[in-house]
Each structure stands twice: as structure tokens, then as C-alpha cells.
């Protein structure tokens, strides 16, 4: 067994991918199977046995590289499922954090919808309020005239707004909810990679030789 950090394991995975691809390409061009005249030796080989040995060795090399990659990848996956990190104030496994990097797009989409809804409602509210104020002022002029005392105006306004005023129905406290979600998204996106890099550098896994 060999101990290595997740960072080193990830680096080896990248190297193995290149080696697997190179070894796979090496199996092409008559390296595994070829056509030749009876009794002849394949071009570039001293004997048929040498060709057979090299063909088997080439295939075994690819299989060994793939097996090594699978072993390392499995160890990383198991480690990610059990290692916890804290990102944007939330504790989660490394596996969850990696998934969240893709999943965060859903949070952003919902946030955009919330922001659009809030902006639209505020605009409609401001327009509606302005219309109510216009009607109130017109009524006050008709009922009280230009020199109406402020107490009378206020009484009229309170009565009018109670009947015909407008309000925002906001059961989710949308402004605060938007701010909370926006903070989480920004903190997660700005710190996730750094937290995962630190965790990978500190976490060790055991790989069979």
C-alpha cells in the first residue's frame, strides 16, 4: 500500500489518462493482429514469437494502466464521500461540494427569477401608489379646498388609503431572501475551489501497489 494526498492522486489520474491514450494508440496499426503469408515473420520483428509477446504485452499494459486509474479513482471517490469541508457557512462532504459546483447554476437561476419578480413588483407598486396619491390629491381638493388644515387632510387620507390604497403582499420577505441567497452563491463560488484545494492537499488516501 502507498499513501498519497488527494492532490497527488488527481495529478496521477491526469498522467494516467495520457498514458492510457498513448498505449491504446500503440495497439493500432497491426500491433494486435495482422495478416501475413504463411510462414512469414511480421515486418519489424525477428520472429513470430516476438510479435506475439509484444502484442500480449501491449494489451496488458493498457489493462494495467486502466486498472491503476480505476483503483486511484475509487480511492478518491470514497475519500470525497467521507471528507467534510465548510463552504459559505455550510458543512458538506467534498463530493457534495463538487456536485454543488455544477448545481449552483440552479440556485442562480432561481435567484434571477426572484430578483426579476421583486423588481417588477416594486415598479408596479410605485406606479400604483402614484396613481392613488393623484386620486387622493384630487379628492382632497374637491372636499377640502386649497386651504385645508393638515389634520383634516390626514384624516381624509387615512380614510381614503384604508379603502383604496395598495400594498405589497410579500409572504417570503423577498428582499431579505434575495440577499441571503446572493451572499451564499457569491461566497460559495469565490471560496469553493480554494477550500477543496486545501482539503485535497491535506487528505491522504491509501492506494494498493
Quick structural gist:
The protein is mainly alpha-helical.
**What is the tally of helical segments?**
5
The strand order across the widest sheet is 1-4
Structural class: mainly alpha
Strand content: 5-15%
Oligomer: single chain
Q: What is the total domain count?
A: 2
Q: Any low-confidence stretches, pLDDT <50, length ≥5?
A: none
Keywords for this structure?
209 residues; two-stranded antiparallel sheet; 2 domains; 8% strand; single chain; 5 helices; mainly alpha
Characterise this structure.
This protein has 209 residues and is mainly α. It folds into two domains: 2-82; 90-199. It is 72% helix and 8% strand. The chain has five helices and four strands. The chain has a two-stranded antiparallel ribbon. Strands 2-3 form a two-stranded antiparallel sheet. Strand 2 and strand 3 form a beta hairpin. The chain starts with a strand and ends with a strand. The mean pLDDT is 91.
Topology:
Layout: E1 2-5, H1 6-26, H2 48-82, E2 84-87, E3 90-93, H3 94-144, H4 150-164, H5 174-202, E4 204-207
Antiparallel strand pairs: 1-4, 2-3
Amino acid at each position: 500500500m502507498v499513501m498519497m494526498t488527494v492532490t497527488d492522486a488527481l495529478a496521477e489520474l491526469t498522467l494516467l489518462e495520457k498514458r492510457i491514450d498513448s498505449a491504446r494508440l500503440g495497439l493500432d496499426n497491426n500491433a494486435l493482429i495482422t495478416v501475413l503469408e504463411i510462414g512469414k515473420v511480421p515486418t519489424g520483428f525477428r520472429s513470430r514469437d516476438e510479435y506475439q509477446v509484444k502484442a500480449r504485452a501491449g494489451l496488458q499494459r493498457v489493462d494495467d494502466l486502466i486498472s491503476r486509474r480505476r483503483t486511484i479513482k475509487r480511492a478518491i471517490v470514497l475519500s470525497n464521500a467521507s471528507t467534510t469541508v465548510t463552504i459559505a457557512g455550510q458543512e458538506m462532504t467534498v463530493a457534495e461540494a463538487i456536485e454543488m459546483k455544477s448545481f449552483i447554476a440552479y440556485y442562480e437561476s432561481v435567484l434571477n427569477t426572484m430578483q426579476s419578480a421583486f423588481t417588477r413588483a416594486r415598479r408596479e407598486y410605485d406606479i400604483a401608489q402614484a396613481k392613488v396619491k393623484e386620486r387622493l390629491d384630487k379628492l382632497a381638493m374637491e372636499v377640502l379646498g386649497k386651504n385645508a388644515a393638515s389634520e383634516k387632510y390626514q384624516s381624509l387620507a387615512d380614510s381614503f388609503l384604508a379603502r383604496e390604497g395598495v400594498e405589497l403582499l410579500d409572504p417570503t420577505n423577498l428582499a431579505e431572501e434575495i440577499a441571503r441567497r446572493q451572499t451564499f452563491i457569491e461566497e460559495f463560488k469565490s471560496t469553493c475551489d480554494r477550500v477543496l484545494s486545501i482539503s485535497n492537499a491535506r487528505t491522504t488516501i491509501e492506494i494498493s501497489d
